[in-house]
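Weekly puzzle thread! Below is a chain. First person to post its structure in token form gets bragging rights.
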Amino acid sequence: MTVMTRRNIGLAAGMMTAVALTAGAMISFSAEASPALPAGNAAPLFVDAATASGETISLGDFEGKTVVLEWTNHDCPFVKKHYAEPVKNMQTLQADAGANDVVWVQVISSAEGKQGHLDGAGAIAKNEERGASASYTILDPSGAIGRAYDAKTTPHMFVIKGDGNLAYSGAIDSIKSARVGDIAKAENYVSAALTAVAAGTMPEVTEAKPYGCSVKY
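Winning reply:
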């Protein structure tokens, strides 16, 4: 399996490093590339990533559509904040995205035996329990996709435009806390990014330092 930019735009000519995925395929990225993913640059193109439902998906499958990547860990207090009832902040974002033909992809990069790790059945059951409506849930226990995106926290959010370029990466909103009461007071960067992309513009905020629990690679 190979991580690359769409149509090979911006691929480095240097040495490539390969990391195994759970599906038995490979994911590769330039060992010389910066781990930072600035807005406007091409997002790493994962291929044949295993999902909770047993199918595989590739970022290229969604060319022409906006894609949201959400790194998640159901045991993390910061993730629980955004899934908490009655606010259901993450669920509402997912539902609104789906209604606007946006592809929402959860990614679970917790390694086996570490906090937040789930198998396919467990991930499906957890989403049903909390009323989540992600389009897909990728199981990434090797951490290959997480490291390719330099995902640091749960949640860590990425908004990818239909041309494969990043429109936004970072925190879900502007208040770095695990308090549900802060959701209403915060600026939601993901919602703002989706609104801007739908209007054909770049978001006012394209990057924000992510907050939450560290990804449990």
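Puzzle host: Confirmed. Bonus trivia for everyone else. Helices lie at 77-83, 89-99, 120-130, 144-148, 189-198.
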